[in-house]
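$ run holo --ligand "zinc ion" --emit tokens
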Amino acid sequence: MSTATDIALDQAAALLQPARCAMAFTGAGISVESGIPHFRGEGGLWTKFDPYKVAHIDTFRKDPAQYWTYSLNHRRPDAQPNPAHRALVDLEQRGHLRAVVTQNTDGLHQKAGSGEVIELHGSSHAVVCLDCGAQFPRADIDRLNREHCPPSCPSCGGQFLKPTVVLFGEALPESALRQAQTLAMAADVVLIVGSSLQVYPAAGIPRLAQQHGAELCIINAEPTPFDDVATVVIHGKAGEVLPAIIRRIAQDR
Ligand code: NAD
Ligand code: ZN
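-- output --
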């Protein structure tokens, strides 16, 4: 990495080391190196698919088969955490990170071992029946989907099985949003990783933190609308940048 990046890495380590209640705010970009594509920006899914067709609640209710066909072809149930997810666990264990607030639904922070993870957009690992409310493990419904697309509810036979993810047109889970807001207002540092920071209300969380005095450190492949107000900005791959920050923090011990 270049000298400019070296300086920014030192600055990021210096920001995180004395932090007492830092939080991470993560987006799809942190899981790209695990083989899960992101949405916006170079190579993102929304450059190939119309989000209204595959991820909007109105379209889902009209034609769940469209969603489940997309899922059949694009879901990566075997994805594993990458060095960026693990670096956040390391930061937490060293006492520099209080919680991870994520827009991701892939469960990779939990799989990596992060202690407190707040999922703003739900989880893709469970499925709910919109008719009877029964919930099922995603793996069971994926199996049914492979046999017959779209799958129907094993309890009531209903046709509207939906992963517990927040689709466009749906509200965020209230308790997750409240917890994230509380953490944001108390945070001294927000470490933002792999988010275009264009999706609201989620992107309002780092904004709220900043308004309450937190310093922002952004690690993202491309520029974001928050770069101007951040204390440190590093444009690079999360799986390379985060471990480099940890190495600096570990050396200073
Ligand atoms: P986004 O797609 O809008 O932005 C991702 C950002 O990550 C982009 O700016 C991109 O430049 C950057 N990026 C790509 N590869 C990177 C890498 N290796 N290291 C660092 N940065 C990288 O994603 P977002 O901001 O999370 O947008 C929110 C929406 O995307 C949410 O609705 C979320 O639920 C959804 N989403 C989640 C997943 C997942 O669970 N993994 C996957 C796709 C989309
Ligand atoms: Zn049902």
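-- notes --
The chain has a mean pLDDT of 93.
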